């Protein structure tokens, strides 16, 4: 957990395993998937528009271009927000991962330096609005000077950014699984997530097939146009005539009425020499000229069909680009289909397999037990939160059972490796020698507690001495390196302590999630009896210095001594003022003698407010004890 909770929100660092970061990662994962679906929509911007019964041209859909640009800009903003969140998210120090989740580094400079060295470049490339710049700035400038319809720049930019955007979702999914155990909260949600990835691949292949079909149609037209130019006709073919922006020009209309370019590139005519291969179906069905929704669904179906069949139904030509595209479909389809089937089995068939084999998960057993015992909702939530926290920290591994199955010497060495550095961080234990620390480490038991857990209540017997590693307790705030249950240590140090455990003098409750280690009463008593060095004056002085009980007693003693000092100084000041003040003349004139011959003198002292009764009794009792 983060060591400081009282900082303002502008300076507060986020816990990578906290609920806020987990929710944001899920939101950004959904946004990333939307962005991956949006980028291939740029491939649908161009379409084949028939100008009349015999001629056609390539047209840019401006309304679709505007819509895709707005969607793309919105997803880019989420990428920028994700970069800002990463600059404010702490990370676990690699050297501290020996115990539990490790220590969080909250220094902004270290966080920024680590992020700049790792994923910053990938995130920056994924967040740049490159397709918008190409569509709205670069392509219009190139077309105005070149007069050539070419989508290569747009395709390269989209593919260039698609790789880092696709890469981002995999470590993001890993972080979500590491923090919560699963990407989605239900098995059906996990199955839908994996199916969505498969549909994403079909969407990309369908959009690529559509764009390549446009390119093959344009390639055929340009090839026929060059052949027509070689005949030096009166109305020669120009590449700009293939663009719908020039369809209203008189020379273009005159050329369209006499040219043979469109008839020689008619995919429905089997007599033409140009071979369209796997793209012929898009041309013959008229998918390149349909409205966006119709051509999108048709291309999505084409991608899903060929991805599922590994491209077996494709009839390719010798064109290298077409053959390479078919090979890519076969490879991607094989890998994704195996990945989909495997994950679907994990997410959907696990329950059936467990029921058939008579095996149920611990979580299901717990849910059934809570339902059977009719526990209230708040208790159920606490149980679920604790089980989830234990799973996230330990990743489902029972370390204690593994250690118990190992030989004694190996178990002792592992315990030293895991706990020795941690024990030395506690100021009280740092004063002990290595042999005593080895004995303590061998008997340490790690514990994990969620927020709001009551470690021990006042008046209950103390059975363990708990040392905190991360997180905070209540009362006097116990931070990393502090410990509670010191009354048990006093009980263990007594030479003839009885069998009854000492009572706790305070209630200890966790304010955050806490990781720590504990010494049981019998283990602490064994160490105290076997190692007499624990009774040394130096260790006892160190214990008193770091003990909150002794600190409270010392505070009360200092306050009592300070009150005695203030009271004595007040009395001394009153005596000094009495000695320095002159006596009144009417008392010195001799009229003051009365019965008994005694001289009654009246001194005028300054008036002081009387002490309260409780304060008076407390000061008198303190003076008596002093």
TrEMBL record:
Protein name in UniProt: Ion transport domain-containing protein
Keyword annotations from UniProtKB, A to Z: Ion channel, Ion transport, Ligand-gated ion channel, Membrane, Transmembrane, Transmembrane helix, Transport
Record-linked InterPro entries: cNMP-bd_dom (IPR000595), cNMP-bd_dom_sf (IPR018490), Ion_trans_dom (IPR005821), RmlC-like_jellyroll (IPR014710)
Domain Ion transport: 25-347
Broad class of the protein's primary localization: membrane
Similarity comment: Belongs to the cyclic nucleotide-gated cation channel (TC 1.A.1.5) family.
Compartment annotation: Membrane
Transmembrane segments: 27-45, 120-139, 151-170, 191-212, 319-341
Record membrane topology: Multi-pass membrane protein
SUPFAM superfamilies cross-referenced by the UniProt entry: cAMP-binding domain-like (SSF51206), Voltage-gated potassium channels (SSF81324)
Keyword flag tRNA processing: no
CDD domains: CAP_ED
GO molecular function, one term: monoatomic ion channel activity
Region: Disordered, residue numbers: 581-626
GO cellular component, as recorded: membrane
